Amino acid sequence: AQSVTQLDSQVPVFEEAPVELRCNYSSSVSVYLFWYVQYPNQGLQLLLKYLSGSTLVESINGFEAEFNKSQTSFHLRKPSVHISDTAEYFCAVSGFGSQGNLIFGKGTKLSVKP
Amino acid sequence: GAGVSQSPSNKVTEKGKDVELRCDPISGHTALYWYRQSLGQGLEFLIYFQGNSAPDKSGLPSDRFSAERTGGSVSTLTIQRTQQEDSAVYLCASSGTSGPYNEQFFGPGTRLTVL
Fold first, then answer.
1. Is B5 helix (H, G, I), strand (E, B) or coil?
2. For position B1, what pLDDT does the model report?
3. Rounded to a whole number, what is the distance in Å from the CA of B89 to chain A's nearest CA?
4. Residues in chain A closer than 8 A to B60 (CB atoms)
5. B-chain residues within 8 Å CB-CB of A92?
6. 3-state DSSP call for residue A39?
7. Shortest CA distance to A89 belongs to which of A111, A112, A109?
């Protein structure tokens, strides 16, 4: 069984500041790792994912996440946030050999203020 | 192209009534998932379909919940004798193929309110 913990339910930050959204997981098997984002009044969409290879993965809009197996973490970072990054961010895992059903964390609401 | 669509977008019902929620996946996607997003529980997996194979119902919270997928495409989630704790946003997602590494494309959800 897998579980995902997002320690911060809300993260307020000023525009152009750096941000880190934390994600830790627990699993008895190897996992694939995902970050999904839900912008206000929109559906969930994939931000980035780690499958294998380089432990640092990047999105097209400047976010990056690093898989740390020893710490079972997949924290999401951005060096300089924009107002448009205001959204709820969900960390998720799916287990090797599973049918792909995602186990989600409870989400972190990122609020970027001018 | 068209994304995943769900209907209705909002549903208000009285406790004890049955409801049906519909999902139209992206054309050609063989894998279909239902999730529930509620304030207390976050996002929870409910059920998974792959083509015409028997579904994985392991996430369904009670036997009041059922789902079917006709012709390997449209899916309907049915909740019988609704309870107030069923109030949530029900999300449908589809994926090109099954497997734990594929991107899932989510619909806008159906917000269910049980009075």
1. strand
2. 58
3. 11
4. none
5. 43
6. coil
7. A109
